[in-house]
Design goal:
The protein is built from five helices and six strands. The chain is α+β, with helices and mostly antiparallel strands and about 170 residues long. The chain has two domains: about 40 residues, no CATH class; about 90 residues, Rossmann fold, CATH 3.40.50. The chain starts with about 20 loop residues before the first helix and ends in a 29-residue tail after the last helix.
């Protein structure tokens, strides 16, 4: 870690060893780092919310995991030169996810520009423009001045009329 390499990754299965727990490895690296580097824990299972995963979730998670490992392997082959890894480009730290119905890798530097870190949400969400229409469909008593109207691509003025109630 004293060299040019600035990041490392430890992958661990929860059943790999009864004594080498995530907390043990974190404490070990934190203690031995002595200010040269810092450590963080990210247990992927803790990110999952909403109960037991469905077969779709398990299948999708497996597919994303395979794509992530293949991507990491390709990146390591690209940046490996003379026994050293030079992972200092913007796309060396990415997040995998869906972007317009396609699984894509997004560099963290790009995500930083479009993320609301305080609320841990994207700054712009496409579905927010549909709130007014959803309230109308649910027969809420609403004030049109409370909402910011948005441009909806699939609805035109000829087919949507607030005055006529659609």
């Amino acid at each position: 870690m004293k060299t040019d390499i600035q990041r490392g990754l430890v992958l661990r299965n929860e059943k790999c060893h009864e004594h080498y727990t995530t907390e043990f490895l974190y404490n070990l690296y934190s203690s031995e780092g002595k200010g040269i580097f810092d450590c963080r824990i990210n247990v992927l299972g803790h990110l999952q919310q909403g109960g037991a995963p469905t077969p779709f979730d398990r299948n999708y998670g497996t597919k994303l995991g395979v794509k992530a490992v293949l991507w990491m392997s390709e990146k390591l082959q690209e940046v490996y030169r003379k026994g050293r890894v030079f992972a200092n480009s913007c796309d060396s730290a990415c997040v995998i996810g869906l972007r317009k119905k396609v699984v894509a890798f997004s560099p963290v530097t790009e995500l930083k520009k479009v993320t609301d870190f305080e609320h841990r949400l994207p700054q712009e969400q496409w579905w927010l423009n549909l709130r007014l229409m959803l309230k109308m469909l649910a027969n809420y008593q609403i004030s049109l001045t409370e909402y910011i109207s948005g441009k909806m691509e699939h609805v035109t003025r000829r087919t949507l009329s607030i005055e006529k109630g659609f």
